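Re-run with default settings, no changes from the original entry. Doing this only to confirm the output is reproducible before filing.
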Amino acid sequence: LEKGNGKLVPLKEVAKVRRGFTTGVNEFFYLTEEEIKRRGIEKEFWMHEDATGNRIPNYVIRSPRECKSVIVKPEDLKYRVLMIHKDRRDLKGTKVLKYIQEGERKQFDKRPTCDSRERWYDLGTREPGTILVAMIQAYRHIIFFNPSHVYPDHNLFEILVDEKNSAFILATLVSSFSM
């Protein structure tokens, strides 16, 4: 560190670091695609459009154990995250509104994290980071590259960097120097 004085900077000076979703009720927000389809939940709430206009599921990584490699691959992930950004009046006649009402019957809306949001069922909008770091390093120290922009659960931290610096920051974080 002494030799690097003036050359090294804290990560927060070159990137934004934030924790993944804290849903307050994972069993409501994280569903398998089979469960979503069985309930008939509309695609706009569990899929998003990529830059070319293709619909892509809102994949979510809940635990580092779900990844088989250092690259986050959507096909390895079991769950999708619901992203509901509309008021109830705009959801009239939808299956997702029925699902929200079911959650309210189970009093999910009364849980502290959910109750603190304006719309308890709205996780807000966010662009996932390209680098993910496990909050707790259990059996392996690993940094994940997230080129598919999979949404992370609160068990992971997201590192948001501009594209031109992402490879350098990723390489630095996985180096023995960083560890």
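The chain is about 20% helix and 20% strand. The beta strands are 16-19, 30-32, 47-49, 55-57, 59-61, 79-81, 131-134, 143-145, 151-152, 156-160.
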